[in-house]
Amino acid sequence: MMIISREKEFAYTESDFQWIRTAVHKRVGISLNESKREMVYARVARRIRALNLKDFRSYRKILENTNSNELVEFVNAITTNVTAFFRENHHFEALANEFFPEIIKRNYSSKKIRIWSAGCSSGEEPYSIAITVKENIPESWDVKIIATDLDTNVLEKAKKGVYSIDAVSSIPKSRLKQWFWRGKGSNDSLVKVVPELQNIIDFKQLNLMGDWPHKGQFDIIFCRNVVIYFDKPTQRVLFDRYADILKDHGILFLGHSESLHGVSDRFQFIRQTMHRKVR
Ligand SMILES: C[S@@+](CC[C@H](N)C(=O)[O-])C[C@H]1O[C@@H](n2cnc3c(N)ncnc32)[C@H](O)[C@@H]1O
Fold first, then answer.
1. Active-site residue among 43, 87, 175, 276?
2. The pTM of the whole model exceeds 0.90
3. Beta strands of the chain (E only): which ranges?
4. Whose C-alpha lies nearest to ligand 1, atom 2?
5. Same domain, 69 and 201
6. Annotated catalytic, 149?
7. Which helix (H) or strand (E) holds 241?
8. Cα 25 to the chain's mean position, in Å?
9. Is position 182 within any domain?
């Protein structure tokens, strides 16, 4: 047994690292390269302490149990949930000025639009989409946003729709007034999204590496700042599944550092992380 370092609080072997690495890749698609050995130790040690365990071996047992929520906690410890309202605002401008008008023409007979926010974190992304929907799609249309994430903690926050006043500081006053309620008294540093936005969003836990229960196809998929943790083969499979579930001409939005280059030929690059399904 090769011990990586004897100086550590918990004995950490090469096989511990390789086991964790393989388990995480298989179950959530996250790829931890060799350089993440120390980072994995630090994050797992924190979990071992929090759970009052003895060592990596007992931690591995918990992670192995598919019924435990520990995988989610572990993923939380190694990934980021960072998000923001109207993050990469050019996506929302393109929705309002370009893609919604196009979809309204195409879906005129059904008057139905389906959007998926995949890896929605604490909800800022789907609520930004919902505001753009409400401002640009006729009220009589049937619009639904499915918002999913692996992490149940962020989903709880997303469902509540309560944010600090700082989180909405970049939203213009008129928009803020229309779509958020300001807290009163001891809650005056908080805002809550209006029910009208919550009513068109369905928040659900979903592991992108697992089965997708969606019925029907999507007009738009947002999957931004999620695949940065996935290796190319995992991305290839995921983007293929997105192409299968998008309607013809459907739009896929990626994060600012993500690209389909060399990963999928089923989309046409529009510009700046926006892609159209072509096959
Ligand atoms: C950085 S956040 C991105 C939030 C938002 N899309 C944005 O761009 O602002 C990445 C999210 O992806 C989620 N995630 C990572 N791996 C996942 C997986 N296998 N299935 C579902 N969600 C996953 C994380 O829990 C996290 O909330």
1. 43
2. yes
3. 3-5, 12-13, 112-118, 142-149, 162-164, 180-182, 190-193, 201-205, 218-223, 246-254, 267-271, 274-277
4. 81
5. no
6. yes
7. helix 232-245
8. 17
9. no
Ligand 1 atom closest to 154 (CA): 27
Q: What is the mean pLDDT of the chain?
A: 94
Phi, psi of 62 (to 5 degrees): -65, -40
Do 207 and 121 reside in the same domain of the chain? yes
Q: Is residue 261 part of a domain?
A: yes
Q: Quick one: pLDDT at residue 155? A: 96
Whether ligand 1 lies within 6 angstroms of the CB of 83 is answered as yes
CA distance 113 to 220: 8
pLDDT of residue 4: 55
Give dist(CA 113, CA 143) in Å, integer: 5
Asked if the structure places residue 213 within a domain, the reply is yes
Counting atoms of ligand 1 from 1, which one is nearest the CA of 151? Answer: 25
Give the nearest ligand 1 atom to 121 CA.
27
Nearest CA to ligand 1 atom 7: 83
In the predicted structure, residue 215 carries a pLDDT above the cut 90: no
The one-character DSSP state at 145 is E
Residues 8-36: tens digit of each pLDDT: 899 999 999 999 999 999 999 999 989 99
pLDDT of residue 2: 56
d(CA 247, CA 228): 25
